Amino acid sequence: MSVLNHLDRLESEAIHIMREVAAQSNNPALLFSGGKDSIVLLRLAEKAFRPLSFPFPLVHIDTGHNFSEVIQFRDRRVAELNERLIVRSVEDTIKQGRARVKSDTDSRNALQAITLVDTINEFQFDACIGGARRDEEKARAKERIFSFRDEFGAWDPKNQRPEIWNLYNARVHPGENMRVFPISNWTELDVWSYIARENLAVPDIYYAHRRQVVRRGIQLVPVTHLTPPRDNETVEELWVRFRTVGDITCTCPVASEAKDVQAIIAETAITSVTERGATRMDDQTSEASMELRKKQGYF
């Protein structure tokens, strides 16, 4: 009789959760951005449902401010899997007057909530599988694996269903939906250990590379057309990598020379700062807090 190790147990739990979504939901979807957590979700979906096709489409809410390396990886991976990808754009939401920005360089991260809720309503999805993890941020630590959202797409942390003995309730009324997080109990170290074990490809910007940055407080801000240096800021070219990828305007790399998965695992094992705490500028203010955005419909 074989003994399951730590990653085996996490994988088994996540596959069980995915199959529960497929069994209990009428019209689910899997959110896939090309980031490391959603890459892991795709691998888990393969193990849960292959050789059949996935029982749900893949969905990406595109801010229009994504790193090109990640979008290219997204499209390549979807083509390899021969699965259906639905892309909806925050830019279209802005053009429709459903969201407003002060300038083209404003972060669109929070605006994804509006586009996501519109997409859920367009396709009548009753469950959306996402790659959020509890260790990322305190608001995500409050969330159940099957996270209930009302008819407006809003999340109420006080209105969560019990999940005793890993029993999940995905029943919803028309207009309501579930956000489901199969890797909720994983850590950043677990994710990279699984990527190593499964030999999964990830976008190159997760590995150390030379990039121009400026220092703002404790963060290294990448120099791009959306995040140009401010007056009196000194541009440096450093070895950096991204721990998380998102909207260019709010995503920062960290100093690193980790050029392969094992080196990333070694770095991650000794870090004392969460990936969002170290790299997301929009998580540093109360006005853009994760909990507020989740209440408004964010992932």
List the helices and strands and how they pair.
Elements: H1 6-24, E1 28-31, H2 36-49, E2 58-62, H3 68-81, E3 85-89, H4 90-95, H5 112-123, E4 127-129, H6 138-141, E5 146-149, E6 177-180, H7 188-198, E7 209-216, E8 219-222, E9 236-241, E10 254-255, H8 261-270, H9 275-279, H10 290-295
Parallel strand pairs: 1-2, 1-4, 2-3, 4-6
Antiparallel strand pairs: 5-6, 7-8, 7-9, 9-10
Helix pairs in contact: 1-2, 2-7, 7-8
Structural features:
single chain; 299 residues; alpha/beta; Rossmann fold; 2 domains; 4-stranded antiparallel beta sheet; globular
Please tell me about this protein's structure.
This protein is α/β, with parallel strands linked by helices and 299 residues long. The chain has two domains: 6-190 and 287-295, HUPs (Rossmann fold, 3-Layer(aba) Sandwich), CATH 3.40.50; 204-283, no CATH class. The protein has ten helices and ten strands. The strands form two sheets. It has a six-stranded mixed beta sheet with strand order 3-2-1-4-6-5, sandwiched between helices. A four-stranded antiparallel beta sheet has the order 8-7-9-10, with no helix packed on it. The model has no long low-confidence stretch (mean pLDDT 88).
